[in-house]
Design a protein that fits this description.
By secondary structure, the protein is mainly alpha-helical. The protein has one domain: Arc Repressor Mutant, subunit A (Orthogonal Bundle), CATH 1.10.10.10. Helix content is 65%, strand content 7%. The chain has 6 helices and 2 strands. A two-stranded antiparallel sheet has the order 1-2. β1 and β2 form a beta hairpin. The chain is globular. The protein starts with 8 loop residues before the first helix and ends with a helix. The relative contact order is 0.12.
Length: 142
């Protein structure tokens, strides 16, 4: 007998995550970006000089996939990479001036999506929702 998945918490969480991803794709498309590219721009805007592996972890993709994301961003002149003088085999990525502008525009688009999420939660309960997400994440990382 097949179990009905709809009442399961994990299934509902995945539905919400999938809808969020779709909304982000829609918001970023006019800027010529996808969510993985946005994650890189946002990360480098906050913390320049990150490695491929660092960025892959934060964007929830493999280092191999990140290599392709960085190559496209580099080709678009949004990201520049250089050798790490302390570790010759590592390359560090940082935003170009154009990359910073694109990151700011993308962040504004993503914040509009974030407002939709927050609109689904009573203003007094936003911290409770964040805490719940943190507890769910922690439970899955044990």
């Amino acid at each position: 007998m097949t179990k009905d998945m709809t009442p399961l918490l994990g299934y509902r969480l995945k539905l919400a995550q999938h809808a969020l991803h779709r909304r982000m794709e829609e918001a970023l498309k006019p800027l010529g970006l996808n969510p993985a590219q946005y994650a890189v721009l946002a990360e480098l805007n906050a913390r320049p000089d990150q490695t491929n592996a660092d960025l892959a972890e934060r964007a929830f993709i493999t280092p191999q996939s990140m290599q392709g994301v960085l190559a496209k961003l580099e080709e678009a002149k949004l990201v520049a990479r250089r050798q790490d003088v302390r570790h010759g085999r590592r390359q560090l990525a940082r935003l170009t001036p154009e990359g910073r502008k694109k990151a700011d525009a993308a962040n504004a688009a993503v914040m509009r999506v974030e407002e939709v999420l927050e609109g689904a939660v009573h203003p007094a309960a936003i911290q409770d929702a964040v805490d719940l997400m943190d507890r769910l994440h922690s439970a899955m990382c044990k």
